Amino acid sequence: MTTTAQQNHLVALFKAATVIPVLTIERIQDAVPLARALVAGGVRTLEVTLRTPVAIEAARAMMAEVPEAIVGIGTILNPADFVRVEKLGVAFGISPGLTPDLLKAAAHSSLPFAPGIATASELMMALSHGFDVAKFFPAEQAGGIKGLRALGGPFPNVRFCPTGGVGEANAATWLAEPNVVAVGGSWLCPTAEIRAGNWAGITAICERTLKALKAT
Hints:
The protein is built from ten helices and nine strands. The protein is an alpha/beta fold. Helix 2 packs parallel to helix 10. It has one domain: Aldolase class I (TIM Barrel, Alpha-Beta Barrel), CATH 3.20.20.70. Strand 6 (about 115), helix 6 (about 120-130) and strand 7 (about 135) form a beta-alpha-beta unit.
């Protein structure tokens, strides 16, 4: 795919997802039951963050054992991370920020990718490499919805996935913004629930969140 095609594919994927759980998996044995719990709750598009030593193995297990899940990788920090993720065969990649080297690696890849941005200058750098879908991060700390709207003025064609400070209470408010295609967050899969193996509880959170969003 060309970069334009990749970005359009990412928009379609994010719009279909609406909410994307940001997963920090500490134990490999949690990966598959967690993915199953999320999918059972209606949440299929998952972001596994590269924050733990088992992240790559966890994503691989999810893809193998839970084919209904659409697995992506987040917290991609550098070109070496990008190469590892691309070889894994995940559906998409996300970074919390950007560097020229990371953008260059992503621009030469077939992996759909959303770089993280918090400022107009960062967004301009992303656009210069062909990326018009971005993770707005950390969303609340970077100005919240007012900050997002300010970016939308000079960049009306950019689509965003806000993450950072987004939760069950304000997800609908973020999703009501015309340039927001999805939101990301960890509220769908609290660390305490993962550690306790409370998969039914995680499914219930997903179901409750999606029901509330459909009602708005």
